[in-house]
Write a structure and sequence with these properties.
It contains eleven helices and no strands. It is mainly α.
């Protein structure tokens, strides 16, 4: 990695700028398209409140915490913010496109395999509990990977993960707005005639579906985008865990379609989004660090010693 990537300060500053800038963008979209946003006043207040809470938590953490505890607070602030935004962005899904775009993805499936991919997988409902395990384990892995990066590579590694996963979610949430897709079970639930039966993890997956998900929030798939970031970070900072967890992450990709949470194209878009983010994130850090250095040079007084005349 280059010098800027190794700068924990540059990474953390970029993370906070990304988070706050994205809140500002969502707030602005809510105001501009108020006539298309249900209960836009409440939503705009929620975005403002989220920004204030995020700033307060980060400010307090930098003064009260050090080392691993500071990293835990940063992780909670960043991932907690995007967990909130995942639900909040639902109200903005139809500011650009009035309806759902599911039929576009379904027609692409039909042109390739003659059937929509998640419906086709009904023929092989054999490993439901394993599939649901892979889908559900994503949620505890979301913060846990940050701690693994910290233990394996220090603060810079953890910040590297948080920056990339933040950017991946920004791309996904903007995708929800630009190309709204309801998702399979919301678009055509009558097509699924074979129930998904399993044990504890199947129950967890269904609880998540009914209590945390909503129509939309589908393309790109955050599961596949964030899962790809997690996998890349493990490869970068803990190669042993990368190989150990690889079967789980490969199953995770399939589980999003098998579990009828996403179309195959949602997953493909999520993986591509992660690849783009991983390619460009270091350049963003470099650009932000250059801007910060420039601004500091403008406001810091330089004392230039004058030659002493004899």
């Amino acid at each position: 990695m280059n010098k800027v990537q190794n700068s924990s300060d540059a990474l953390s500053t970029t993370i906070h700028l990304v988070c706050l800038s994205f809140i500002a963008v969502l707030f602005a979209l809510t105001i501009i398209f108020a006539h298309k946003v249900p209960d836009w006043q409440e939503l705009s207040i929620q975005f403002l409140r989220a920004g204030v809470v995020y700033v307060a938590v980060v400010w307090l953490a930098r003064r009260l915490s050090k080392g691993w505890l500071l990293m835990v607070v940063y992780t909670a602030a960043v991932l907690g913010l995007f967990a909130f935004l995942f639900k909040a962005v639902a109200g903005l899904q139809h500011i650009v496109v009035d309806g759902w775009m599911d039929d576009v993805l379904i027609s692409m499936d039909y042109s390739l395999i003659g059937k929509e991919s998640s419906v086709a997988l009904q023929r092989v409902v054999l490993l439901t509990e394993w599939m649901m395990f892979a889908y559900v384990i994503y949620f505890p892995l979301w913060p846990f990977i940050a701690l693994i990066c910290y233990w394996s590579g220090g603060t810079c590694a953890a910040n590297d993960y948080l920056l990339n996963v933040s950017l991946a979610n920004v791309v996904c949430f903007l995708g929800f707005i630009i190309f709204p897709v309801a998702s399979p079970l919301y678009h055509a639930p009558h097509l699924y005639t074979v129930p998904l039966e399993g044990g504890f993890f199947t129950w967890c997956g269904e609880w998540i579906r009914h209590n945390q998900h909503y129509a939309g929030g589908s393309l790109p798939s955050p599961h596949c985008a964030d899962g790809s970031i997690m996998l890349a970070m493990l490869y970068r900072y803990n190669r042993n865990l990368f190989y150990l967890s690889l079967p789980v992450f490969l199953t995770l990709y399939v589980s999003t379609v098998y579990g009828r949470y996403h179309y195959a194209w949602d997953g493909i878009a999520g993986i591509i989004s992660a690849i783009v983010v991983l390619k460009l994130s270091s350049q963003l850090v470099s650009a932000m660090d250059a801007v910060r250095t420039r601004l500091r040079s403008l406001f810091v007084t330089r004392n230039v010693a004058e030659p002493v005349s004899e």
